[in-house]
Design a protein that fits this description.
Order of helices and strands of chain A: EEEEEEEEEEE
Number of strands of chain A: 11
Radius of gyration of chain A: 13 Å
Structural class of chain A: mainly beta
Distance between the termini of chain B: 30 Å
Number of helices of chain A: 0
Distance between the termini of chain A: 41 Å
Shape of chain A: globular
Number of helices of chain B: 0
Strand content of chain A: over 45%
Oligomer: heterodimer
Radius of gyration of chain B: 14 Å
Structural class of chain B: mainly beta
Strand content of chain B: over 45%
Largest sheet of chain A: 6 strands, mixed
Helix content of chain B: under 10%
Order of helices and strands of chain B: EEEEEEEEEEE
């Protein structure tokens, strides 16, 4: 069945460094992907999305890369700040199913 | 997101009790969802509704029921709570935009439920 998973459950980076969070998906029919950020005690918050007809999309300090050949999605956060510490989830929308499948999540910790 | 509210925010109950979690949204979205979050398991879909007359089971609907009272309200019930239903519960909404592949969901703050 379809699944979305993350390569690393935890990631620690120094403040100011760039971070990369990875996600693998298994369903070739997935046509839309979203990254969410979840801070402690809060619900997931939308960060950035990308359609399957794109390879890259940039936002403010964040970039999402999509490699459909190997079914891989990544979130790059530039110049990390303490406020970036959170759990990050990728989610895929499987074309036709009209619902999202979420990955397990990666906990990002920013060290001072 | 303040546009999606959940009540209660925290609840402790006993095995066998009936519990209702409520979700309201002011975003005007057609679609509403209930998810459960357990440590290490991410978000799992319980039920979802694409409009007031539409209710669909998600991947873990057993032991739960829902009611879509209005476009803005979607409640989740545990008919007879059991300890393994202890979890964080999130409501989410999305807009039936008509554009394929843009089902961005917006989440409420969550309800922490503990079943003793």
């Amino acid at each position: 069945g379809e699944s979305v998973g993350l390569h690393l459950p935890t990631l620690s980076v120094q403040e100011g460094d760039n971070s990369i969070i990875n996600c693998a998906y298994s369903n070739s029919a997935s046509d839309y992907f979203i990254w969410y950020k979840q801070e402690s005690g809060k619900g997931p918050q939308f960060i950035i999305d990308i359609r399957s007809n794109m390879d890259k999309r940039q936002g403010q300090r964040v970039t999402v890369l999509l490699n459909k050949t190997v079914k891989h999605l990544s979130l790059q956060i530039a110049a990390t700040q303490p406020g970036d510490s959170a759990v990050y989830f990728c989610a895929e929308n499987i074309g036709g199913a009209q619902k999202l499948v979420f990955g397990q999540g990666t906990r990002l910790t920013i060290n001072p | 997101d303040a546009d999606v509210t959940q009540t209660p925010r925290n609840r402790i109950t006993k095995t066998g009790k009936r519990i209702m979690l409520e979700c309201s949204q002011t975003k005007g979205h057609d679609r509403m969802y209930w998810y459960r979050q357990d440590p290490g398991l991410g978000l799992r879909l319980i039920y979802y509704s694409f409009d007031v007359k539409d209710i669909n089971k998600g991947e873990i609907s057993d032991g739960y029921s829902v009611s879509r009272q209005a476009q803005a309200k979607f409640s989740l019930s545990l008919e007879s709570a059991i300890p393994n239903q202890t979890a964080l519960y999130f409501c989410a909404t999305s807009d039936l935009s008509g554009r394929r592949g843009t089902d961005t969901q917006y989440f409420g703050p969550g309800t922490r439920l503990t079943v003793l």
